[in-house]
Give the backbone structure.
Amino acid sequence: MCIFQNKLFYFSVWCILLYVICGYVFADTINMAVEAGKNEYSRSCELCHGVTGKGDGPYSSRLIIKPADLTTIARDNNGTVPITSIYRMIDGSDDVAFHGSRRMPIWGNRYHSESIFELGRDSAQTFVRGRIFELLLYLDTLQVP
């Protein structure tokens, strides 16, 4: 019985250590993805949606339809960010009613054309998805209660 308890103890300690290590690795990966999303936001979205995402970027006054306030997406959708809808807006697979008839650029096309040269056709779509998901992770950090 003592041997079993000893093995159980070591197994438990090992599981706890593994859980902690994986948690740090996963948290670090998420943080890196959010940072990449922030960089993409600065590069592609900030001119219209503003630094804070409130739709007050330097180009916003020049647009016929004011850019959306990205900080209230969750609040306007019962506390959740509609990932699929926003993904499809960004990649261009959905028309965006509140942007009019496709006044928002189709970033998925730009991402795809950029990545084909770097990765080739087979890997480009996976890269595009990753880039959009990084942006979505960053948009999640902008949400206000």
